[in-house]
Amino acid sequence: MKEQGIKLFFCDLDNTLVPHFKIMPTEEVLKFIDNVRAQGMTFVLLSNNFNKRVRFFAQKSFIKHYFGMVKKPSTKIVKKFMKNHNFKPYETIVMGDQLVTDILMANRLKLESILVQPIMNTDLKLNSLNRFLERWIYKKLEKNNILIKGEYNDQWFESKNQEKLL
Predict the structure, then answer these.
(1) Are 11 and 81 in contact (CB under 8 A)?
(2) 163 torsion bin: left (phi>0), alpha (psi -120 to 50), beta (else)
(3) The pTM is what?
(4) Which is nearest to 1 in space by CA: 96, 79, 114?
(5) Do both 64 and 144 map to the same domain?
(6) CATH number at residue 105
(7) 3-state class of 9 per DSSP?
(8) Contact at 8 Å (CB) between 96 and 14?
(9) Is residue 166 pLDDT above 50, yes or no?
(10) Fewer beta carbons under 10 A from the terminal one: N or C of the chain?
(11) Residue 44, SS3?
(12) Phi, psi torsion values for 4, nearest 5 degrees
């Protein structure tokens, strides 16, 4: 990412870094955050969860920039942060576990994104509509051989990069 000029790393919290019920960061999470910073990137924690939960986790992780109640896929907070700190879209990446919140937000802002497998399945009613939509989207993507849940499709990725080069 550093070689691609990424300077700003937005990261979801729940089921991306830790399960939604875990209040403390793990050693792996702390190392991951330190690694992002070591690459010269600004790390920003984003969550649709309550401010108190996000603030506590951020403080325990030594994260300076964090936002709760983001209402993803809303772009308002991310757009404002980028503007206030002079980051350009081509310098920014978003990592998250949900297509209809994290990745949709990134796409709406024309930002690069990293979709990760959720750490654990959740039966929260709040996420049930999102997970239903994700299953439908995954089926469409699988049908077109673009994305198979749990797999990386090198062939599709390489063909898209070839198109960009032409």
Answers:
(1) no
(2) alpha
(3) 0.78
(4) 114
(5) no
(6) 3.40.50.1000
(7) strand
(8) no
(9) no
(10) C
(11) strand
(12) -85, 0
